[in-house]
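User: Can you predict the 3D structure for this chain?
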Amino acid sequence: MTRFVHLHNHTHYSLLDGACRISDLVRTAKRFKMPALAITDHGNMFGVISFYQQVMEAGIKPIIGMEAYVAPESHKKRGGGQKGGGGAFHLILLARNMDGYRNLMRLSSLGYLEGFYYKPRIDRDLLQTYSEGLIALSACIKGEVPYHIIHDDMEGAKKAARFYKKLFKENYYLEIQNHGLDDEHKAIKGLIELSVELNIPLVATNDTHYLKQSHSEAQDILLCLQTNKDRDDPQRMRFSTDQLYLKSSEEMNQLFKEIPDSLTNTLEIADKCNLVLDFEQHHLPSFKIPPEEGIYTLNEFLEKKARDGLMKKGPVTPELEKRLEYELSVIEKMGFSSYFLIVADFIQYARKHDIPVGPGRGSAAGSLVAYALGITNVDPIKYNLLFERFLNPERVSMPDIDIDFCYENRDRIIGYVKKQYGGDTNVSQIITFGSMKTRGVIRDVGRVLKIPYAEVDRIAKLVPALPGITLDQALAKVPELKELSGRKPYDELIAYSKVLEGMARHASTHAAGVVIAPGDLMNFVPLYKSGKEDITTQYDMNSLESIGLLKMDFLGLRTLTVIDQTLKALKNKGNQVDIQNIPLDDEETYNLFAKGLTVGIFQFESAGMRDYLKKLRPGCIEDLVAMNALYRPGPMEWLDNFIERKHGKIPVDYIHPDLEPILKETYGIIVYQEQVMQIANSIAGFTLNKADELRKAMGKKKHALMQKYRNDFITGAIQHKGLEREEAEKIYDKIEKFAGYGFNKSHAVCYAIVAYQTAYLKAHYPLEFMAANLTSEMNTSERIITLIDECRRMGISILPPDINESEARFTVSEKGIRFGLGAVKNVGIGAIQSITEARERQGKFRTLFDLCKSIDLCRVNKKVLESLVQCGATDSLEGTRAQKMDALSSAVALAQSHQQSEKRGQTSIFGEKEGSSAIDPPLPNVDPWPQSQKLLFERELLGFYISGHPLEKYRDEVRAFTSPHPDNYSGIPSGHSVRFCGMISDIRQSYDRFNKPYAFFMLEGFSHQVRIAVFSEVYEKNRRLIEKDKMVVVEGRLERRNGGDEISITALNMWPLESARQQLTKRLILQIYTEKIDEDLIRRIQEQLKRYPGTCRTLINVHVKGKEILMRSKTIRVRPKKSLINELRGILGAENVWIEG
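Assistant: Here is the predicted structure, written as structure tokens:
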């Protein structure tokens, strides 16, 4: 048998086409004992670095390539025929050496940057320019040569083959494939003829798209996802074979036993491919020292800047000097001086240009050099942070400094970096891949299989919301899911999902990643252009780090913008607040945390977090750091224990006295990765660098390495501290137990500081802070509703948008916070600028016509004006909303005529000249809009109601029958019975596989909205209630998903809100506060009650001189009509009468 090498393989990076995970592909090739393996994804090199590393690790020779798309004419020409499919021919290109690899990167890049038309296309001219170091195969039946053969054009085939032979010489091969397709048999015959006639060798391949033959249908599902078709669509694209799998050498020998040379040639090609990628070399741009600074080496200049910066922070103690010298020596030894200077440079630019920068992010906050240079603003000595967690000379990898910037100015920073370091040629954003995660792949596959959404959604939700969980793990954990996997049609759903889960689904631009190269990026990494015209690298963050390029995260952090806008608002009022120097022991700030009043507070505002804050009652920054680290999946299970230890309810146990200094701040619990390192250093004598390796091994569950370190730790503890083996083992086991959950303390400190800053501003400057928060969320209706509800809780009035008062942003006024015009739908910044400029120029607008004639009607068009009228922003002008809406067209027309006359210097149709007062046309006499119409427009244009609420007339019912309050849902488990009242919106109705109807809808309350699911019998019983804008009470089962943060209710009962008072009220509660029992008052109340006989019980709480007397009437039962409630409130006060369900 002839040995064989697969040279034509598509991984899942042939997006929604290839169904092979790289790891599985490599594992199978190793099992087949293949000496080499190629990667040839469609037009891209997305997976090349990961592939190369995994193949090398498996002891197999990697062959790097791609299946290129070659345009029949210029790659820049759009349109044309469908030759070869997609308007381009296929061609396999493989890199023989580094020259070939660089040319492959260049060709792939140009295909996306210049030639993209449905596919990333190159052309013959580009091939002639960049053919050095490449091997070319004629590809599948969509290749140029086989295409001509299949279409009976042997001359065309010869002409093409001669071109490629001349270009690639002995490195051009005619590729033959046999997947059982008729066209392939015809192509093979012609290719053999050409091989003999033109002396071009044949090579056999299999067009691998999936791993096993049984995966062909799963790959077919991928094609359906790619083309957005159902599986049973007869018109859709499909492969007419199940042979596109990774075949063994035996299978390939059987297929091509008549052409053995085509098999031998795979080995010949593999022998020619000897690309070696160097993952040890770093490709850092060089920092240019400003001439005015003098003559220094990079190392000298870094030391100078660090020492100068540290001296500005305060006295340089021996401890600081020792730490600084150590860090500088490590940075110099590892060759990263330029890196630190570059980062410090663009952060200095940001601060100089009033662009807010965060105090730090990630492990970089552990570096004193970073602190001295101004890269971070957290003192690593004060917070006991470790440099070795950031930069470890025993772990040769690029440092990772991620920076938070104000989200509005992130692009300015990227622009500066591009300007400084070579523009778009050298600087790029980074690609990221959306993958088919477990729940998502179930939903994707279910849609293709046409399984009703409700069923698919229910099955997807059976998968536990745990990070990284696989479908196999879910099947082992959830019996119902396991049972479904054996029933039709769910067996297919589960089987296909298992094949496809984790595969790349689409490419997009990483939200933060930026890469800086020392020269033309295309010499280091292939580039990609998305549909949005964003240019990114084709390699993701991990691959870029592997090849030694400088990458960093420039994150746009909305909270920094909120802080900045708050400070600017205060400064405008003459109140200068230095947020970097606020006291970190402010009592009012900690009271805010202790009461859980943290809506709007960075990282501390989720309902679950607020519950824990009330239990913890943090009193220092260290408590906030610990809470930030613990409130995450995994470590959260220790939160209650942590809180009880803090409050002395559980004794703090350190196991060994030497652990107390390390674990005292976290009450004996290992919370931080740095604590793991310090314990290994203190107890076992590990260097901090070795301790970091231990931490990393534990975090990644590398069991072989962990066993080695266990032995080292126990031996070290016995020798270094004189511990007994049993005691050393106990300490190591404790470390191992917590290390997998341990959080980066440096990061937790940085973000706890940002959280404290926001809480300080909320506690001391609530108006300015909440206005800035509202502005930052003005495009997110749900968040606006939450924040406005919080403002009302704080006693802050939200004033409606007003054409005469509002700015683009939310602003503070004497009466409260004024709604920003920028939050009104359809109103853009250009329109707002025109309105505010006109207002500044001439004062407040009086009438609709006055507004129209004063603004630029090209920037403020009729649609904008309609939105302003409908949402109530013109209420300060004369007339009702209905009148102004009716008059708008004529007002705009008259204003345009007026403006044209003014331009010509003529008297207008109203007889006025420039500077004279206009005679406004009268408003039409039309009826005002009903309140319901006004509210409808407000909801549509503002995202919520501002002049009232549709539920207002049912406020008593909502209070009585909502149980528990949605704010308390965080503490309620799934399956618990709840009631929620609101108005129905966003209805989606369908049928399940048994043809039973079901519905999903949103139920909107005063300040919360909840997703409701109504199935089968409940649906049939309540069908008439499921209408848009219908107000209902829903009783049902609370459901949780995505770790419990997403809440929904499965309905079991429903009632119309209008009749719920009669159906659900159990008690009428009256509360009386008096100095003595007032018999006359009691008599008046009883008379009122007797006028409304019914079945509802009455309960009277009488408060006399601090004592409470409970009175229950055995004889008086009432019908709790609204008129009765109003009459009783007239006697006792509105707050002292209510109903309960």
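The two ends are 82 Å apart (CA to CA). Residues 881-904 form the longest helix (24 residues).
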